[in-house]
Each structure stands twice: as C-alpha cells, then as structure tokens.
Amino acid sequence: MFSVIEGRVLGCLIEKERTVPDQYPLSMNSLVSACNQSSSRDPIMALDEHEVDAAVTSLKAHGCARIVHPTHGRGVIRVRQVFDEKFALEAADAAVMAVLLVRGPQTAAELRTRTERLHSFDTVTDVDTCLHQLAERQLVQLIERQHGQKEQRWQQLVAEEAEQSAAPVAIAGSGLAGSVVDRVAQLEERVAKLEAALADLL
C-alpha cells in the first residue's frame, strides 16, 4: 500500500492526464501544484518538491509511474502515471480511482458529480456498478457509515488515507497543512455571494 503522499501524487497524475492533456505528462512544478491545490482536494496538503519527488521515485519502483526525459533542447523532466495500464483500468475505473485518491472516501452520488470532468457517468447506478467491479479487484471497499453521515462511503485501497476534516489540518512532518481561519473566510465569501445572488432574484 502506498503512503498518503504517494496516493496524492498518483491521484493527481491520473486526474491531470484527463483534465489537462495538453500539459501532460506533468513537470515537477506542475505536479507539486496539483498536489497542493486548495480545490477538489481533501485534505489540503502543502507538499514540497522533495516529498513529491520521493513519492514519484516510489511509484516508479512499483511500476505505477514513469519519468519522461526531454527529447531535445533544454526541456524539463516530466512524470506520467502507468497505474491504469498496470491494472488494466477502463476510463471510468481510472476516473473513480483518481477522485478517491485525491478526495478520500465518498458516496457513489458524490463520485458521479466529482468525476464529471474525467468521465461522464449517466447515472449513480453506473458509478455503483463501476465501484463493485473495482471492489472485486480489491482496489476499493465500502466502509461503514460514520457518525453524522446518512450514507456509506467508498474508500480506495491503493494508498493510506489521510484523516479528513471539515477544515484543513496541520500535521507536523506529514505534508498536510491548512488553516481553519482560511476555510472560514472561504465559506463566508461563498455565503456572501449566494446571498447576493438570492437578492438579485427577489
């Protein structure tokens, strides 16, 4: 099983291959930025290049990533994932795995919404079918409903899971970082925009 950081790197590589194909394979700078995005990530991380590079080295050793060297001129080394090739994943499978790796356990309905840019599922049932097929291959599992949750969630089994929370958590030496103040500010801004939009409708 991969580490939390290796899982984040792998998930980002799968995601970006499908969402920004013109920028793929990713340079190390782009990969670090993808890992540390403040949107579409749970938890939010603050990884440095050394941590991401070490994760890439590990993924490469396990046959899940490859280094792409510049063919000519002064180019930069880039990274691509081959996890989907190794496990013979279809586009739908890869999309689900990517979102589970970068956002943690989720319901089938959440996955349908969040995989939209990677792969379009017609119904939640289609997502559920995909998840059960991945479960048969021991790549995901259905976990027990947690306190305060209405539905069970699906969890990937490729990498360790970071502890999730409503706000980003800072854990020394783990690459996880964030601020409750920042999250509150973001939420307040969203509420203000929603209130303004509602006022326009009234």
Detailed description of the structure:
- The chain has 202 residues and is mainly α.
- The protein is built from eight helices and five strands.
- The protein has helices spanning 4-19, 28-35, 49-61, 83-86, 91-103, 108-114, 124-136, 180-201, and strands at residues 26-27, 65-68, 78-81, 140-143, 153-156.
- Residues 165-175 have low confidence and may be disordered.
Question: SSE layout and pairings?
Answer:
Layout: H1 4-19, E1 26-27, H2 28-35, H3 49-61, E2 65-68, E3 78-81, H4 83-86, H5 91-103, H6 108-114, H7 124-136, E4 140-143, E5 153-156, H8 180-201
Helix pairs in contact: 1-2, 1-3, 1-5, 6-7
Which features characterize this protein?
mainly alpha, two-stranded antiparallel ribbon, 202 residues, 5 strands, three-stranded antiparallel β-sheet, single chain
- Note poorly predicted spans: 165-175
**Radius of gyration based on Cα positions:** 18 Å
Count of individual helical segments: 8
Distance between the termini: 53 Å
Return the string of H and E elements. HEHHEEHHHHEEH
Query: Globular, elongated, flat, extended or rod-shaped: what is the shape?
Result: globular
Named at the architecture level, the CATH assignment is Orthogonal Bundle
For the biggest sheet, the summary is: 3 strands, antiparallel
Strand content: 5-15%
CATH class label:
Mainly Alpha
Helix content: 40-55%
How many individual β-strands?
5
Number of domains: 1
The average pLDDT score comes to: 88
| Name of the CATH homologous superfamily | Winged helix-like DNA-binding domain superfamily/Winged helix DNA-binding domain
CATH topology: Arc Repressor Mutant, subunit A
User: How are the strands of the largest sheet arranged?
Assistant: 1-3-2
